[in-house]
Specification:
Blueprint: E1 15-20, E2 25-30, E3 36-42, E4 51-53, H1 55-64, E5 68-72, E6 75-80, E7 83-88, E8 103-108, H2 109-115, E9 121-122, E10 129-130, E11 132-136, E12 141-144, E13 148-152, E14 165-169, H3 170-180, E15 187-192, E16 196-200, E17 204-209, H4 218-223, E18 229-234, H5 235-248, E19 255-259, E20 262-266, E21 270-274, E22 284-288, H6 289-296, E23 303-308, E24 315-319, E25 322-326
Antiparallel strand pairs: 1-2, 1-4, 2-3, 3-17, 5-6, 6-7, 8-15, 9-10, 11-12, 11-14, 12-13, 13-25, 15-16, 16-17, 18-23, 19-20, 19-22, 20-21, 23-24, 24-25
Helix pairs in contact: 2-3, 5-6
């Protein structure tokens, strides 16, 4: 029996279940406590019966390759010129993976990955923390943590008045991104039903449980703050000034005050600069320098639009198709 070690997942889970198929075999790799399963098809692999091994055994296949493998006396045995390795088989798990996925969403993986940076929010009407990103069937993406909210509105949505939405675990997004980061086309199709979702990479698939909880209505949240005063700044100049402010003070502790045409960073040391000498809008808002720096790190437009309503309300930062909402700091 041969296993093509080049097709094994880069990160193997503890339980690795090989299932005999009409043609070849299928590997299901997962953790006992996890709700994610990596599925890999080995069409050239011939096995006599299903078997289950741990991650260390499969890692040795790559180390001892080229090698011959056999299942003997409830052991996984690798024979190679480099030596012989033996590992006890695991009890075959009971897994039910044949499901119907009646819906699908196609989303931009880069936008999904950015959203996953802000995905530790509270579920609606509960104290449950949702470490996931909300995607609806129109291709809109939403995420939020304790200080920053993210919204991407698809410019070409499907005609769907009753858009369904799912909450995708951030761990799944990380896995998809690592798998596809060298692929030029970053559009990913996610198939889903009420409980699970599936992403198909050809010979490799990943099945994951969805987060089963109501996501906050961020459209309603954003609608309260997008009609304030607009301050337009040169993005590169604004990023440069924020970068200087970070070097002056400790970013974890520093606060930043945007006030009329000036920016004042308050931390270990103070830093003051002119943002826009021609600005006539009167405003003042105090933010975490770290939060503002994080958001501006993702802004790509030549001009940055800041929308302000009053000092106690969030600041909205607008980028190409994306809105960021940053909560202000109330000075005690």
């Amino acid at each position: 029996m041969l296993i093509d070690h080049n097709k094994l997942p880069k990160k193997l889970n503890e339980v690795n279940y090989f299932k005999k198929e009409e043609q070849g075999a299928t590997l299901y790799s997962f953790e006992q406590t996890s709700k994610e399963v990596i599925v890999v098809s080995f069409k050239e692999m011939e096995i006599q019966e299903d078997f289950c091994v741990n991650a260390n055994a499969l890692e040795m296949v790559g180390i001892l390759s080229p090698c011959e493998i056999e299942i003997k006396d409830d052991n996984f045995v690798i024979k190679s010129k480099k030596g012989i390795y033996k590992s006890a088989l695991l009890d075959s798990p009971l897994i039910t993976l044949n499901q119907n996925y009646t819906n699908e969403i196609t989303v931009d993986l880069d936008r999904l990955k950015i959203a996953s940076k802000f995905c530790d929010t509270k579920a609606t009407n509960t104290k449950i923390s949702l470490k996931g990103v909300c995607v609806d069937s129109n291709g809109n993406i939403y995420a939020s943590d304790a200080y920053i909210a993210y919204r991407y509105l698809n410019p070409d949505p499907k005609e769907n008045d009753n858009a369904s939405q799912i909450v995708i675990p951030s761990s799944l997004i990380d896995f998809i991104y690592k798998t596809m980061r060298n692929i030029e086309n970053k559009l990913v199709t996610i198939k889903y039903n009420q409980r699970n979702c599936l992403v198909d990479f050809g010979d490799t698939k990943i099945i994951s449980a969805l987060i089963d909880s109501a996501f906050p209505d961020l459209n309603r949240t954003f609608s309260k703050y997008v009609d304030g005063y607009v301050l337009e700044l040169d993005t590169k100049d604004f990023k440069d000034k924020i970068s200087i402010a970070e070097k002056v003070g400790k970013i974890e502790e520093s606060q930043i005050v945007l006030s009329n045409d000036k920016m004042l960073a308050e931390g270990t040391s103070n830093y003051k600069c002119v943002l826009n000498a021609n600005n006539e809008v009167e405003y003042q808002v105090r933010l975490s320098l770290k939060n503002l720096s994080t958001v501006m790190g993702f802004v790509n437009e030549e001009k940055t639009k800041l929308i302000y309503s009053d000092s106690l309300k969030p600041l909205v930062v607008k980028d190409s198709g994306v809105d960021y909402l940053i909560l202000p700091i109330r000075k005690s």
